[in-house]
Specification:
about 240 residues; alpha+beta; 6-stranded mixed sheet; 4-stranded antiparallel sheet; about 30% strand; globular; membrane; transmembrane; transmembrane helix; signal
Length: about 240
């Protein structure tokens, strides 16, 4: 099953202790963007009704004949539902059209938000084996959706442009990770038609590090020169 090995291998690293749940806000979409040397992963979280009303997801892919969500059917694999959710998203990496594949999609009770801060949180949230079926079947308005997507561009560190369906404007919580750790968190409001720009903020980090190295070398040189001068002065004084 597409993406299942990747999901299971990463979610096996989850440590139950220390996890904190992020609050769910209605009508806000959460994004986790994760980059490594080979790939770009994007995890999305949103109320199921937002997925249906804004992203155009066919509700029939989730609900049964009774209008409820049969959780047991989701455990058979859901990457095709994730692909359907992504259909109206336009993605570009380094200015070129990028193809993202759906890894998995899962729904959880709206009033029981999951931790959704790190890429590992994202993989856990989309795991099809991580949600027990509720005692009473739930409708769409009672559920929150998590989905994961992956692409393999030539340069995973290149700027990413996403055009999300937002005919009425869209509020986002964007968490960017890459190359060893978190990069930045930000709240974004996209007006209708406005794209979301994602870029690795390398410049502001690299400059201070370089300056620090130069300063340390200069200070070390001054210290050695001062020590050498004191040594010569001591020799002359004793003579």
């Amino acid at each position: 099953m597409r993406g299942l090995r990747r999901i299971l291998a990463r979610t096996a690293l989850v440590v139950a202790g220390g996890l904190t749940c992020s609050p769910v806000l209605a009508d806000r979409v959460e994004l986790i963007v994760a980059r490594d040397d080979r790939s770009v992963e994007i995890f999305m979280g949103m109320p199921v009704l937002t997925a249906v009303d804004t992203f155009g997801l066919d509700a029939g892919m989730l609900i049964g004949p009774d209008g409820r969500v049969p959780f047991e059917s989701l455990q058979e694999g859901t990457w095709q539902i994730a692909d359907a959710l992504w259909e109206r998203v336009e993605a570009r990496i380094a200015g070129q059209t990028a193809t993202f594949e759906g890894m998995s999609l899962m729904v959880h009770p709206l009033n029981q938000p999951l931790p959704f801060v790190t890429p590992l949180n994202g993989l856990t949230a989309i795991s099809v084996c991580g949600v027990p079926a509720p005692e009473a079947p739930r409708g769409l308005r009672d559920l929150y959706l998590y989905a994961g997507f992956v692409a393999y561009p030539d340069d995973p560190g290149a700027p990413i442009t996403l055009r999300l369906p937002n005919p009425k404007g869209l509020d986002l919580m964007v968490r960017e990770h890459g190359f060893g750790g978190p990069l930045r968190d930000r709240h974004v409001h996209l007006s209708p038609g406005k794209p979301l720009e994602l870029a690795v903020p390398r410049g502001p980090v690299a400059v201070p590090v370089a300056v620090m190295v130069v300063v340390m070398v200069a200070v070390s040189g001054l210290f050695l020169a001062f020590a050498a001068g004191r040594s010569r002065w001591s020799v002359r004084a004793s003579a």
